[in-house]
Amino acid sequence: MAPGSGDSDALSEVKGITEREIIDIEERAQPRTPVLYEVVRRMGEEELARPAVSLWWSGVAAGFSMSFSLIAQAALQINLPPRTWTPLIVAAGYPAGFLLVVLSRQQLFTENTITAVLPLLKSFTALNVGRVIRLWSVVFAANMAGALVAALFYTFTPALSPELRDGALEISRELFSNNSKEMFFKSIPAGFLIAAMVWLLPNADTARFHMVGLLTYLIAIGGFTHIVVGSVESFLLIFIGELAIAQFFGQFMVPVLVGNIIGGTALFALISYAQVMSEI
Fold it and tell me: Could you please report the per-residue DSSP string of 42-97?
């Protein structure tokens, strides 16, 4: 008897369940790796085909949404006593921006390090290379624009209380306790975890909130660096005169951007493709 055939026979005896529904149940119960790969690859194909203007505004929204990771952490920090366990609780605010972005289907650059690359790995052509470059360029620029708008808003309007603003600045300063080398290596696990999050989403169903929250919480407690969240923090410091533009690019943006891409593409995307390439 083939594996699972007993379950199929049992299901077929249940009134009201069609053969198509039996297949759906089996696929949901035990999705094979090639199935997950194909779902994520098709997500990538959809993103690559979207108009640039749609990608842009979705990316701007994502950049602004990611600022709430910083604001949520700051709100927790200013209301907690300074104890050894405080950072573990403060880190619980970090998933806020990611949950906004993922659950509302906004465009985040680090998600596209896997979704856009899988179609390219399947068909490595000049056309697909151009499509990936187009997607990455538009979404990254849009994320930076959204992060910049958020930082401008929080700096030059009374949207934040003085205490909350000071808390956000304190967290932002902690980012630059890392030198460029540390920024780079800490950004690789962050890219890997975001790519893993995208890979798991098709099978998460009603657990999406918890899965996104857990994986991004790991980024926070690990002290890993993310290009969009870190950009919000950097822009805040630039606007109050504590961070030079050259330092922003040299110490943060370049190493973290490269590290996030390596973690999401060179590690996770390539490994994901390698484990199914003989089955597709």
Answer: HHHHHHHHS-HHHHHHHHHHHHHHTHHHHHHHHHHHHTS---TTHHHHHGGGTHHH
